[in-house]
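agent> fetching stored inputs for the magnesium ion docking request
agent> found them:
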Amino acid sequence: MTTISQPAEFTLQRKHTADRSNAVRWITSHSIRYWPIILMIFIGGLGNAALAAVVPVLVGDVFNQMLKPDPDTSILIPLALVLGGSQIVRGVLQLGRNFGAELMAQKIERDIRDELYVSLLGKSMTFHNLQPVGDTMARATNDVREVNFMFSPGINLVVGSFMFLVMPFFFAPQYHISLLLAPTLFTISYFIALWHYLRALSPITDEVRATFGEMNTHLSEALDGVEIMKGAAQEGAEIERFVTNARRVRDAFVRQGDLEARFLPNLLLGITYAIGLVHALLLFRDGLLNTGGVVAYFGLLRMLDFPTFASTFAYTQISLGLSGARRILELINQETNLDQNAAGYTGVMRGEIEFRNMSFEYNNGESVLENVSFKVKPGQTVAIVGQTGAGKTSLVKLINRTYDVTGGQVLVDGIDVREWNLASLRSQISMIEQDIFLFSRSISENIAFGKPGAGQREVEAAAAAAQAHEFIQSFDEGYQTVIGERGVTLSGGQRQRLALSRAFLTDPHILILDDSTSAIDSATEDKIQRAVANAARGRTTFLITHRLSQIRWADLIVVLRKGRIAAIGTHEGLMKTSEAYARIFRE
Ligand code: CTP
Ligand code: MG
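agent> prediction call returned; pasting tokens
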């Protein structure tokens, strides 16, 4: 089995590796490991069909007995017993087939869901910035579900009904060899029709899945931005847009239904019945077939029912499943340009940082940072100031390799960050982002996020150092208070102190604080001020802030303007030399 290795930020060790070269191979490589279940489905399907064929055969025998001038009725009881017994066995086999298929479907669903999740977590921020969350959600939920349905009922019915298709070929020749004619004609035209059907179906199911993904993307964005939307009184326009998207999904489904309705084998089945019956009656007239034979043969032809009726449904399911698999695989196979560099440097960080002639741009090709060079000694506090859009956030995100530089170097302890083992690098750097993200879990869990398993006492100590203990205590449930959707919402200042608690707990060698909140009452301001001063002690700290009090006592101040360093130095130095800096303080 070929395995295509992906450069990923992080990969977890999996026991099973799948072939990701295309959707069919991918699904096959996932299913092949469950071969005992596949065997069970096949045996169950074959046995079920064979025992179903026993019914018309026995009924034919009964007819022949009854039509004799002096019928031997004693044979009817054993025939009836065989008939009944065989159908009980058949029921068991059918159960095996259905159970096997369902089991398989659930196992595969779990496997690919795991694989997708691991792969999503491993992808770089460049990927996540460009990939709409709603679309990812649609793929991770509905497309994964379609793959499940592809096995049960999809493949289950295909296997089961295929076995029914085969049975007339085994049982009809015993009555007269030429009776193979009708099943043969049917089977040939069935497969031709099926081939055409599947070819027409594939783009339609692709479209069904794609329009659904688009609708979901839009829905999730509308809900995310619902506050802005309401604020701008744009509900009407949003509804309009949603209706358009929903209509596209409907249209795709209608096209699928239209194609299903035109499925030719439905017609072929009727024709086959007619041909088969005429054929059998001709043989009967010529004395080549008895009454029981005609009855049995027609009963066998009736078995073609199952493949005909199951196939529209089952093959659509398989087609949808493959479309879904293709979309999941597309996501998994997206290249990520960060490499976790497992073999990289893993030392304990001293906290020296150097930007060396560094430049950076996002995917859109517009230069964000240019020619940035400066050096920070271990333990220093650096303040980065500059107007909005100057590139402050971008600059600090290069330190922990949220993004990679496009030119020059960023060095930590004299080692290019790309030479570091990514996990080691990141675990020693703590970044408090501009928009602080809190999980809808308890406050305690949120603080302990970077250090799972931290004890309650540790958590509280960290919260105290971050000046957060007091407000946490004021909630009824204290540290167990659930944040977000189902719980309390926190103010900007509170969020920030929770994030600082996180940082205290992980005790990083480099702390980065991207602080956008400037309008905070002076009491809180004071608390944050103290928390930050605590946090900066004993580690290299980057502060992006508008708070003059914080900027003032930094060891180094970097003034960014349009992606370039406009001035650099200490507060005293810059006040004298930099007009731009002095202006910030005058305002
Ligand atoms: N940018 C981008 N893609 C991103 C983030 C930012 O193209 N994913 C661009 C922005 O449009 C901006 C530039 O990069 O022109 C710098 O952005 P940023 O570093 O976020 O600026 P900050 O100085 O942090 O601005 P603010 O004070 O508003 O946070
Ligand atoms: Mg910013």
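agent> quick read of the result: The chain has two domains: 23-333, 353-586.
agent> awaiting further instructions
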